[in-house]
């Protein structure tokens, strides 16, 4: 404290020449300047500093509250997404199982339909073969009959002379006449 009073006393010792000058005694002037600056800063800056710190504190608390709300919202969205995911997975499993059973059912239906078609084709083939066999048999019969008829006609023509022909006609007329009498 003695240094502070000494510096005020030294102000009185300045020459009164009316000039302004600097005190170059660092040890005498620095503590006074610092104490004045610090006093002014503390007196005027205390309110501003408190306001700045309060504003900063409010912004930090607001940011923390917003972060908490965002975190809660994110957790809720995550839970909803997980629930939706599990639901979709269950539906996918159900579709997969239904799809597999549907595929198996369609496979069995296709095999059955193919088997039925093959059976029908086999029946058609057998019917066609039977029809072709009957047609071939009928053609062979007709050819044999025609050959037999031609052979019989040839034999008859070679064996029949006009007298034998006349007797055969008379015998047939006699048979027809007898049949006519029986029916009357």
TrEMBL record:
Transmembrane segments: 32-49
Membrane topology: Single-pass membrane protein
Superkingdom in the source lineage: Eukaryota
GO MF term list: proton-transporting ATP synthase activity, rotational mechanism
Record's keyword annotation contains Endoplasmic reticulum: no
Coiled-coil intervals: 64-127
Keyword match RNA-binding: no
Cellular location(s): Membrane; Plastid, Chloroplast thylakoid membrane
Keywords of this entry: ATP synthesis, CF(0), Chloroplast, Coiled coil, Hydrogen ion transport, Ion transport, Membrane, Plastid, Thylakoid, Transmembrane, Transmembrane helix, Transport
GO CC annotation terms, alphabetical: chloroplast thylakoid membrane; proton-transporting ATP synthase complex
Xref: Pfam families: ATP-synt_B
Major location (coarse): membrane
Complex and partners: F-type ATPases have 2 components, F(1) - the catalytic core - and F(0) - the membrane proton channel. F(1) has five subunits: alpha(3), beta(3), gamma(1), delta(1), epsilon(1). F(0) has four main subunits: a(1), b(1), b'(1) and c(10-14). The alpha and beta chains form an alternating ring which encloses part of the gamma chain. F(1) is attached to F(0) by a central stalk formed by the gamma and epsilon chains, while a peripheral stalk is formed by the delta, b and b' chains.
Family: Belongs to the ATPase B chain family.
Note, other: In plastids the F-type ATPase is also known as CF(1)CF(0).
Function comment: Component of the F(0) channel, it forms part of the peripheral stalk, linking F(1) to F(0).
Name this protein carries in UniProt: ATP synthase subunit b, chloroplastic
Organism (species): Schoenolirion croceum
Species classification: Eukaryota, Viridiplantae, Streptophyta, Embryophyta, Tracheophyta
Gene from which the chain derives: atpF
């Amino acid at each position: 404290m003695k240094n502070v009073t000494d510096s005020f006393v030294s102000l009185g010792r300045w020459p009164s020449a009316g000039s302004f000058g600097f005190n170059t005694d660092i040890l005498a002037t620095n503590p006074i300047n610092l104490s004045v600056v610090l006093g002014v800063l503390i007196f005027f800056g205390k309110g501003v500093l408190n306001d700045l710190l309060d504003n900063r504190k409010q912004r930090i608390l607001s940011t923390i509250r917003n972060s908490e709300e965002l975190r809660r919202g994110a957790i809720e969205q995550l839970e909803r997404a997980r629930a939706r995911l599990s639901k979709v997975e269950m539906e996918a499993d159900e579709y997969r199982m239904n799809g597999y059973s549907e595929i198996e059912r369609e496979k069995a239906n296709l095999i059955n339909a193919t088997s039925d078609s093959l059976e029908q084709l086999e029946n058609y083939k057998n019917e066609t073969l039977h029809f072709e066999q009957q047609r071939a048999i009928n053609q062979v019969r007709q050819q044999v009959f025609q050959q037999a008829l031609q052979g019989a006609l040839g034999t008859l023509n070679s064996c029949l002379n006009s007298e034998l022909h006349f007797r055969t006609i008379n015998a047939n007329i006699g048979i027809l006449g007898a049949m006519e009498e029986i029916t009357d």
